Amino acid sequence: MNNKESILQTADVALSYRSVVPENPRAAILIVHGLSEHKGRYLQLQTELAEAGFSAWAYDQRGFGKSTGNRTDMADYHELLSDLQKMVTRVREESRKLPLILLGHSLGGAVMATYCIDNPKEAEGLILSAPAYEFFPLPKMTHFAGIFMYRLFPKVLIPYPTKKDGLSHDPKIARAFKHDPLVQSSGTSRFYHEFRRMNEHLREQADRITLPTLILQGTADATIVPSGAQSLYDKIKSEKKQLIFYEGFYHEPFNEIGRERVIVDVVSFIEKLLVLRTAI
Asked: What pairs with residue 20 in β-bridges?
C-alpha cells in the first residue's frame, strides 16, 4: 500500500493532499473534509477504503490544514469548486480509467453536492456524510457580526463555536479535536457570506444532481439538522440513491462508536456501483 502526501499548486494556493493506494485498486475515492478540520482526520478512513481495494485521496481545502490561503476565508464559493475540479483532474490523471466516487463531510458534502449540480459526468458516484444542507443557526451575536463585518471588514476573523463534544460519543475524538493544532475555530465574514450563497444555490438546484448518491446522517447531530438529509435526498433526482440514518449518532459518522457499520455501508454502496458499471 502506497501512502503519500503531495502538493497540487494552483494559480493562487497550494493544496495539500494525501493518497493511500493499494495494489490494483478497483475505484478511486476523493474525500473533502468539513469546516474547522482537515484531511488528516480522514487517514483512518482512507486506510480502510484502501484495504477494501479502493485508492483513497483526501485534500485540505484552501485556508484549511496544510493548504495555503487565508484561514477559513474565500472571496467566492466558486474558489472551492475550482479547487475540487483541479483535484478531480489530478485523481483522474493518477488513477487512469478507474471509476471516481466523491465523498464529502458536512461543509465538504455541500461543496461536493454543489459541484455535482453543474458537473454530472465528472464522477460515477457521490457519498455525503452529514451534508451542510440545513444547519442549526449560529448564535445571534456571531450571525449578526458576520453580516455586519462583511460590509466593512470582510477579511477579519470572527470566532465561532465548535461543538467538540457533539462530534462523536467517543471521548477520544473530542480530546484529539481539542488539541489538534490544525483545527480552526474562526472564519472571515466573507467566508460565512459565501457559504450561505453556496447553500442557497444547493437548496435551489439540488434536483439537478443525477449521480448515484448515498447520504449518511446521525439522528442526534446537533450541527446539521438531521431532517435536512431527508429533504436533500427527496430533491436529488438520481434513480440510484440511498439515505441511511444512524440512530443516536452525532455529527461525524466516520468517527462514531459503531463506525464499523458506516464503513460497511460505504463499501457496499461502492461495490454496487462497480457491479452496475460492469453490467453496462
From this structure: 3, 56
Q: What is the mean pLDDT of residues 237-256?
A: 97
Please count the CA atoms within 13 angstroms of the CA of 26 that sit on its side-chain side: 13
Cell of 162: 465548535
215 forms beta bridges with: 128, 243
Cβ density class 180-189: b for 16+ within 10 Å, e for less:
eeebbeebbb
Give 78-93 pLDDT, tens digit per residue. 999 999 999 999 999 9
Cβ neighbour number for residue 97 with a 10 Å cutoff: 6
Query: Quick one: pLDDT band at residue 279, thresholds 50, 70, 90?
Result: low
Report which of 148, 168, 142 is spatially closest to residue 37, judged by C-alpha positions. Answer: 168
- Average pLDDT across the chain, whole number: 95
Q: Using CA atoms, how far apart are residues 184 and 180, in angstroms rounded to an integer?
A: 9
Q: Is the dihedral of CA 42, 44, 50, 54 positive or negative?
A: negative
Strand partners, 244: 216
> How do strand 54-59 and strand 14-21 relate by DSSP bridges?
antiparallel
Name every residue whose Cβ is closer than 8 Å to that of residue 276 and which is 6 or more positions away in sequence: 212, 240
Q: In what order do the strands lie in the sheet with 241-246?
A: 2-9, 14-21, 54-59, 27-32, 100-105, 125-129, 213-218, 241-246
| Burial of residue 115 (number of CB atoms within 10 Å: 0-12, 13-18, 19+) | buried
Using CA atoms, how far apart are residues 135 and 104, in angstroms rounded to an integer? 16
Query: What are the tens digits of pLDDT across the range 114-173?
Result: 999 999 999 999 999 999 999 888 788 788 778 878 888 899 998 998 889 999 999 999
